Amino acid sequence: MKKSWIYPFVSLLVCIGMITYYTAIKRTKGFCYYKIHSLYGYDPRWDFGMPNEEQEALLDQIAQRPLTFLGSGKECYAFVTADGSLVVKFFKQKHLRTQYITNYLPIVNKYLIRKKQKLSRRASRRKELYKSCQIAYEQFPEDTGVLYLHLTKTKTLRRPIRLITPKGAELTLKLDDMEFIVQRRAQKTSPIYAALKRKISSTPG
Question: What is the pTM of this model?
Answer without folding.
Answer: 0.71
